[in-house]
Amino acid sequence: MERVKKLEAHGVIKGYHAVLDAKKMGKDITAFIGVSIGHQRYIGEFASYVVRQHDVLECHHVTGDESFILKVKTANTLSLEKLLGEIRSVEGVTRTVTRVVLSTPKESQKLEFDEGLAGEHRSGRKTSGEGEEPATLAERSRKR
């Protein structure tokens, strides 16, 4: 128990949660949506929008052809279509690419614990953008 308290104090353990069955909650569709943003000045605005969307489970600011990758769960294709329309209407969004999940052989939040690596990260330093609030992301994108 003492070890767990130390890991919590150092921010290695960020929280605890229940794993819910999305299908039993009426969320039958899982999709990944790539979102392209036309100009850097819209990055923060989009991030602020997306954190308010309940069907968006994850949002990652990424490199490559798209600006963001979203993981979403919706009730059906009609609700997915509605969400896509809302996303496309956000200022700065120029394109979306949607991939609907057919099956999920593996889905996990589990990370293998390595005592040595955990000690290296006790400084509390984060990688660029990790865990940033949308306002911080917006400020950083304005500086570019």
Give structural notes.
- The chain is of the alpha+beta class and 144 residues long.
- The protein has a domain at 22-102 and 129-135: Alpha-Beta Plaits.
- The protein is built from five helices and four strands.
- It has helices at residues 2-9, 43-50, 77-88, 115-120, 134-142; strands spanning 29-37, 56-61, 68-74, 93-100.
- The protein has a four-stranded antiparallel beta sheet with strand order 2-3-1-4, covered by helices on one side.
- The longest helix has 12 residues, at 77-88.
- The mean pLDDT is 85.
In a few lines, what is going on in this structure?
The chain has 144 residues and is α+β, with helices and mostly antiparallel strands. The chain has 5 helices and 4 strands, in the order H-E-H-E-E-H-E-H-H.
Question: Biggest β-sheet, characterized?
Answer: 4 strands, antiparallel
Which residues form runs of ≥5 with pLDDT under 50?
A: none
Strand order of the largest sheet: 2-3-1-4
The tally of beta strands, per DSSP, is 4
How far apart lie the N and C ends?
A: 45 Å
H and E string:
HEHEEHEHH
Number of DSSP helical runs: 5
CATH architecture grouping of the domain at 22-102 and 129-135: 2-Layer Sandwich
- Look at the structure and give the mean pLDDT: 85
Give me the Rg, rounded. Answer: 18 Å
Helical fraction equals: 25-40%
According to CATH, what is the topology of the domain at 22-102 and 129-135?
A: Alpha-Beta Plaits
CATH H-level superfamily of the domain at 22-102 and 129-135: Lrp/AsnC effector binding domain/regulation of amino acid metabolism (RAM) domain
The assigned structural class equals alpha+beta
Strand content: 15-25%
Please report the first level of CATH classification, the CATH class of the domain at 22-102 and 129-135.
Alpha Beta
**General form:** globular
